[in-house]
Amino acid sequence: MSHAGLSVPEQVARSRVILWAFVLVALALVAVSAVRFQAPELLGQEKVLTDFDAFHIAGTLAGRGDVADAYHAETMRQAQLELTGKVKLMPWTYPPPFTLFVDGLARLPIGTAYVLFILASFGFYLAVLRRIAGEYLPGVLLFMMPTILISLRTGQNGFLVAGLIGAFLIAWRRQSPAAGLPLGLMIIKPHLAAGVGLLALFGRRWSVLAIAAIVAAVALGLATFAYGFVVWDAFRFAVEEAGAFLSAGLYPLYRMNSVYAALHAAGLPAGWAMAGHALGALTALGLLVWACTSTIAFRFRAALICALSLFVSPYNYDYDLAILGVGLAFILPDLIARQRLGELAGLLALCWLASGYGVLIAALTETGAPNLAGGTAVAQTLSWPSLIGPLLIVLCWMIFKAVTPAVQNGRDCTAISYDASLTRTQ
User: Fold this and answer.
1) Which of 26, 265, 283, 356 is buried deepest, with most CB atoms within 10 A?
2) Would you say residue 3 lies in a domain?
3) How many domains does one find in the chain?
4) Percentage helix, strand, coil, to 5, in the chain?
5) How far is the C-alpha of 31 from the C-alpha of 21, rounded, in Å?
């Protein structure tokens, strides 16, 4: 691939400069965010609850023997008030193995815990992307900029989940049974594992499935040993409660990318919106089955699996779009080779709009997420359209059209990775 007449060594050097500049900016954002979590008064700001606060509060409750309280919105609200003096609707619905993980993090001050978690998960994400994209990594990061900034600021687990999916796809392509490890760890967010799970199932690699089952069973067993069987009743209650909140429109739907969020925010009653989502989810699952059993080049199947997995659950947020970066890493060389500069700029703008829309609306309204007060919060949440899902569908369709010739040819247009073992076509 040629960049303005630069030689390959010059291209690599420029990519490294861009990458290190990006990393330095990310580290600066992490440093400021750590202070905002731990001691915002040092920056002349008041405490504002964001996602990692929920991680730390849930872990604190679990660590002091009150794990069931983390899974009840009202007692979680009381804990927020007790520990931070602030309240926000952040119900805890993660499976108990992830609760056990944040239990360990919460033994540290929140600023330190945030730095360790976000740097480790972001480093993992970068390593996975680089293994797939090679010299195209800066381009992938450019496309995913809003999502990356959102996850860095909030301390969410989007990097961790996307990294696990990417690690699975790398190991799967190498036909390594080690693919079962990241697949099993997806127990922390199973609603995003539909694509990789179907690939393992239809690929009939029983060793991968066996390892995944063992890893998931160990994680579930450790959580049960730590908290007792009562934690599963609490978890079930939390899921039911979250479903009620979702139907009532209490969540910020404009930050969700599901068909349900788009339809409900557009004014459809919750039941009809869920019916529409079910139709969309079945379509996504059908396409996933096709992608998992297709004979097209693996990089295209991997990209489809990443993209389609985002449309299965009604409950996904903008930080989950980090998975899209993994899919893009597989096919960015094809995209660059077949698009003019203006067309690439258009795709970049659309990707930024889709991934940054929710945070933009949150900043404009200064609500972020509603509280438990009721009617006013619902009105604020439903007053904004949920456009991430529709924009994401358009983006994926445009990318698919752009790379269709390469899909039909079934040939690599350029080297996909520095790792020679990943350049072969399956």
Assistant:
1) 265
2) no
3) 1
4) 75, 0, 25
5) 16
Does residue 321 lie in a domain region? Answer: yes
- Close Cβ partners of 291 (under 8 Å, ≥ 6 residues apart): 195, 199, 301, 304, 305, 308
| Both tokens assigned to 95 | 């499976």
CB of 94 closer than 8 Å to CB of 55? no
**pTM for the predicted model, two decimal places:** 0.89
Six token digits for residue 338: 């077949």
pLDDT above 90 covers a percentage of the chain that reads: 74
Say which amino acid occupies 185: L
Residue 1 lies in a domain: no
Shortest CA distance to 258 belongs to which of 297, 206, 299, 314?
314
The three-class DSSP label of residue 256 is strand
Torsion region of 228: left, alpha or beta (phi above 0 gives left; psi -120 to 50 gives alpha): left
Helix, strand, or coil (residue 366): coil
Question: Taking Cα atoms as reference points, which of 310, 298, 287 lies closest to residue 407?
Answer: 298
Range of the domain at 29: 8-422
Cα Rg for the chain, rounded, in angstroms? 21
Report d(CA 78, CA 91) in Å as an integer.
Answer: 12
- In 3D, which of 69, 182, 93 has the Cα closest to residue 131? 182
What are the pLDDT digits (tens) for 141-193? 999 999 999 999 999 999 999 999 999 999 999 999 999 999 999 999 999 99
The residues facing 256 across adjacent strands are: 317
* Whether 180 contacts 208, CB under 8 Å: yes
User: Looking at the domain assignment, is residue 56 inside a domain?
Assistant: yes
